[in-house]
Every structure is written in C-alpha cells, then in structure tokens.
Amino acid sequence: MIKASIIKEFRLIFSDLHSLAVLFLMPISFMLIMTFALSNKAEDLTKSINLNITQQDSNLAESLLKAYLSDVGFSQDINQQADVTLELASGFENALFADQANSVITFSHATSLSPQMTSLAKQHLQIALAKVKLHIYLLDAGQLSDSMPLAEQMSRVSEQTNQLKLVSFKREENYQAVQHSIPSWLVFGVFFIVLPISITLISESQNGTLLRVTTFPISNTAYFSAKLLAFYLVSFTQALVLMIIGFTVIPKLVDAPSLNVLQLVPALPLLAVTCATAVTFGAVIASQIKSHEQAIVIGGGTNILLAAISGLMVPLDIMPKAMQTIAQLSPMHWAQSGLKNLFISDSDVLSLTTALPLIIFSVICGVLALWLFELKVRKLQWK
C-alpha cells in the first residue's frame, strides 16, 4: 500500500508541469541571473559611471586626476548627464600638499546612482588623489621626467602604488561569485517544494481522496509519511540536478572554473538533510492551506520572506547587525551557509554543528506536520 502511494505521488507530481517548472526551471533561472549579476568586476562597474569634473583653474593636478580616473574606467562624456560630479576648488593643486587638510573637492552624485556604486566612486577618487600626490612628488623629486609621455609616467606611478603584486589570490573573483550564488539559490529552489505539496493536499481534499483513504487498510500517519517520502525523493533529485548544473554548466557561462562532479560528493549528506528540512517545513504550511490562492500567497510568500532575511537575496555580511541576528534563526540560512562553507573552505567533512539544527528542525516540523494532517482529515470527516 505504501509503495502504491509513493508511485501515485510521483505520477501526480510529474504530470503537473507547473510544479516541475517551480522546482527546476525557476531555480536554474535564478542561479543563472544572480551569478551573472555578481560576476561583474570593479573595472566593469566603473565604465557605467559618467563623471564630470569642474574646476576653477586649470593645472597639472586637475589634469592628472582626470587621467587617473579615466584609467580605471570612468567615462567623462560632457554630452551625457553626469552620475558623479567633482567640483574642484581654486588652488586645488597647492591644497593637496597643505599641512592642514581642507576640503578642496565637492562630491555630488545623481539620485539614481545606487549606494554601492556611489561608494565605489568614492573609493576610486581616494586612490586617484593619492596617485596624483605621488605623481607630482616624483616629478618634483626628479624621479619622473616631464619629457616622458604621460601614459608612461602614470604607468610608473601605478606600478609603485600597486601593492596587490605582493598578494597571491587563491581563487578567482568569478569563482567566488559561483561559490556564493549557487548554494543560496539552490536552497531557495529546494524550499519551493511547499507549493507541490500544498497543491496535492488541496486537490485530495477537494476530490474526496483524503476521506476515501480513511477506509483503506493504512493509517493516516503511514499515508502522509509515504506522501512526504515521495516528495523527499523528488526534492533530493531536484537538488542534485540544480547542484550539478550550478557547479558545472553555469561557471562556463561566467568564465569561472568548473568543479569536478566528484567534488560535490561531500555536500550530499548536507543536501539530504536540507531536502528533509524543506519537505517537512513545507508539509507544515501545506497542511494548513485551503486553496490554490493561499498556496501561492502563503507558501510562496513565506519562502521569499525567508530568503530575504536569510542572506540569500542580499549578502549577509552587508546587512545591518539586527538582520544578521535574525538570519541566524532561519533554516534557509543554516542550509546555505553550510553549503557555502563546504565549498569555500574545501572541507570534505560535514560538521555536526552545521547539520544538527537542520536535523532538529526537520524532526519538529515532521511531527507537527503529521499532527496537523490528522486534524485536517478529522475536520473533513466531521463535515
């Protein structure tokens, strides 16, 4: 009977194209879009910022500032509306070397420029000013010659200020984007199993299947457990497909190194626990939903809200401290942070402290879901 119940659930799930789209197409699309969004390098971002520099008087320092900002990609098209405007005060060059620092640049930006892009522009302005001061100092000290082409002078100054040559990076920037983005959207997709579970329970309530089951030689607990087992197998298959695509196909699209499929093996235990958490949590919500509209609003809405506060949509390390604290209470955060740690640290051992909260949460949700399902069937019998 339990085997027949599992086969029935598989037929229902794979006959519903909407459910399959929610479980597979939507998470793959999210992974692709968000990985592309995070894969941009700083120099690519500066090219989108149009810079306008106004000055009271023309001098070497002002020319050098323009040149160094152009060198890192800032556009300076006077025919376009400026994203960032730098107004240089009179005596700008002399003020750069004054004993007491005073404001000699007024920085303003368009309201349409995001806080992140504004911060990026400020950082590059600070670096450019440091290069300008060093450039003028080297000219005065005779270490640079006025007869040298400006490009060669700038190259020598940049070489002296580039301290990254002293640092070796273990991973490429695009590789880091893949490691952070893929686990987040994989977990987000897995938790959408709540919608197929909800739709199945609603259909069985409306067509009388749940009432007929009470006449079968199987308990409500066994029937519901078989149903959840079927959804668990679907969820685990979904997670495997998403992980393989995420770590082998998507990196090729963003020019990042691909992982060997065998490197995904250490993540399988955590993936199994994550799927159990998603299915039992989804079952708790599904057992209380009474219509397809509620399934979309409550089931889908809960997932989106959890993703928002768990650091899936916005990186946790740029959130305010209060939201970082709230995120620690979310099962989505436990799952995605565990997967990230496995790949970022190159660890091949699943930490018990990572899996234990998910296991405890799954057990609590599983017991609660069974109890709520029993109540649901009793209410149907009373009607």
UniProtKB/TrEMBL annotation:
The UniProt keywords, alphabetically, are: Cell membrane, Membrane, Transmembrane, Transmembrane helix, Transport
Transmembrane regions: 20-38, 182-202, 229-250, 262-284, 296-314, 349-373
Tell me the compartments it is located in: Cell membrane
Annotated Pfam families: ABC2_membrane_3
Query: What is the name listed in the Swiss-Prot or TrEMBL entry for this protein?
Result: ABC transporter permease
Question: What membrane topology does this protein have?
Answer: Multi-pass membrane protein
Residues of the ABC transmembrane type-2 domain: 147-376
**What InterPro entries does UniProt report for this protein, alphabetically?**
ABC-2_transporter_component, ABC2_TM, ABC2_TM_bact-type
Q: Which PANTHER family match?
A: MEMBRANE COMPONENT OF ABC TRANSPORTER YHHJ-RELATED, TRANSPORT PERMEASE PROTEIN
PROSITE patterns with a match to the protein in the record: ABC_TM2
Lineage, uppermost ranks? Bacteria, Pseudomonadati, Pseudomonadota, Gammaproteobacteria, Alteromonadales
Q: Does the keyword Transmembrane apply?
A: yes
Main subcellular localisation: membrane
Family per similarity comment: Belongs to the ABC-2 integral membrane protein family.
